[in-house]
Amino acid sequence: MEIELEQGWEIIERGITRLKNILEGLPEPKFSSANYMELYTTVHTMCTQKAPHDYSQQLYDRYRESIEDYINSMVLPSLREKHDEFLPRELVKRWANHKVLVRWLSHIFHYLDREFIPRRSLLPLREVGFICFRNLVYHAFYRDLRVSVLSLIDQEREGEEIDRALLKNVVDIFVEIGTGQMDYYVHDFEAAMLRATVAYYSGKASNWIQEDSCPDYLLKVEECLRSEKDRVSRYLHPSSEPKLLEVVIEI
């Protein structure tokens, strides 16, 4: 028996809404394997019916639209009301939830990834999901995120205790948002981090040269290099280490 587009989408959308509610912490019954199979089977049937009832393209488009709708209705409003250190915490949570949502939906719409997408040379579902977050969330907040990270790094350099786990999770967003490419990390974060490092140590070095003997000055430089190497190992991407050490040595 053929499933019409709106009839099938009603079933799928109901399931997606439940998944979104679970992510939001709203009361929902456990999502069972039977619930999952109903959605998977509905998608499979709608994609394998004979034309004009093959709804693969429509489901591919609605997959993206359902993610965009979740971001616009739930994610962005929650981020816009957060400020100071609460923004990076909320963004880390939202990125983690987004990855879970994309994983769940990619399982439900798996037939598209396996058959339809390769035939049409379209972007895989996971990549589509990540692009939605990048376009709607990341581009709106990455500057604020960068300011928070650079502020925390400076606080740590001054000897303050910081939440390194939070910092690592925030830096990971810059890495992961590129879906295998490091461009966003390099251009949107690392370049500014290196400039901030130069500014920080230039100020320190000016004072040290005036106040310390040559051996004491060199000891402080050695300590800075150790600290920056430790910083990379704890929360920066390994590719930053040579660049970071180079700017410290050159100061």
UniProtKB/TrEMBL annotation:
Biological process terms in GO annotation: ubiquitin-dependent protein catabolic process
One of the Pfam families matching this protein, by short name: Cullin
Gene Ontology molecular function, alphabetical: ubiquitin protein ligase binding
Domain Cullin N-terminal: 20-249
Domain of life: Eukaryota
PANTHER family, per the entry: CULLIN
Entry similarity comment: Belongs to the cullin family.
Protein known as: Cullin N-terminal domain-containing protein
Native source organism of the sequence: Linum tenue
